[in-house]
Write a structure and sequence with these properties.
14 strands; Nucleotidyltransferase, domain 5; five-stranded mixed beta sheet
Length: 242
């Protein structure tokens, strides 16, 4: 069997796919997307592609390579679904923000924030990615995600949304002291300018991260999927729309 990698980036509005030696393709997701429909859509678009392994960027919390909370913005059934059985290939699953973070990494300690349907976040230290749930921390009259996610953008408009992005980035940088800050996700292009010391991430970096999951004998994948074990039960119950 071909040992190329198929990378699947599952988002709140689209599912994007790319395999070794192929061009990116995508289809619409949304609140009715179940894992069964995701697999069917992926197989339809990837017909004829040769690959032996699969990486999935999942918009929610992942523990030991398994989703542990249903996604906020998609259909149901993701936690108990048999991904390896559906694709008939080895599958590695990682939080979608963590996958894009891994693909954006250049060295040192890097903070990644994904401005999309929700707020994705991850920290990469010496090449090892630590998925985080910063979006659910309290901020003003809600959470970081309430203000920086798509609902916050639509509710308050671009001008206020941009101010909140700058404010939150400043707070997180002061707290975490990263060497590098990457702001990615589908809404990064709605910022007029990036906060000081930040660089823009590319959505295509999610695919780079998906390929990297199979490097180093799986060391990166192992660390990425086990590190959420320290999260609190309260945080787990809220999910993680990235």
């Amino acid at each position: 069997m071909a040992m190329g990698v198929l990378v699947i980036d599952v988002g709140g509005t689209h599912v994007k796919i790319l395999a070794t030696g192929q061009d990116e393709r995508k289809f619409v997701s949304g609140p009715d997307l179940t894992p069964q429909r995701m697999v069917s859509g992926v197989k339809r678009l990837s017909k004829g592609w040769k690959y032996g392994r699969v990486s999935i960027g999942y918009p929610g919390m992942v523990l030991r390579g398994r989703p542990i909370v249903e996604p906020r913005n998609l259909g149901k059934g993701w936690v108990r679904f048999d991904y390896r059985g559906a694709f008939r290939r080895p599958v590695r699953i990682i939080n979608d923000a963590a996958m894009q973070a891994l693909g954006s990494y250049k060295g040192g300690t890097m903070l990644f924030l994904g401005l999309g349907t929700g707020l994705g976040s991850a920290l990469v230290v010496d090449g090892i990615v630590e998925p985080m749930e910063l979006g659910h921390l309290p901020y003003r009259k809600g959470t970081y995600e309430d203000y920086l996610g798509l609902r916050g953008l639509e509710k308050r408009g671009k001008k206020k949304w941009r101010k909140h992005v700058a404010d939150v980035v400043e707070q997180l940088v002061a707290a975490l002291e990263p060497d590098d800050v990457v702001i990615g996700g589908g809404n990064v292009n709605k910022l007029k300018e990036l906060p000081p010391g930040c660089r823009a991430g590319q959505n295509s970096n999610a695919f780079v991260g998906g390929f990297r999951l199979w490097e180093d004998g799986g060391r990166r994948a192992s660390a990425a999927t086990k590190s959420t074990a320290t999260k609190s039960t309260a945080t787990k119950s809220k999910g993680a729309a990235a």
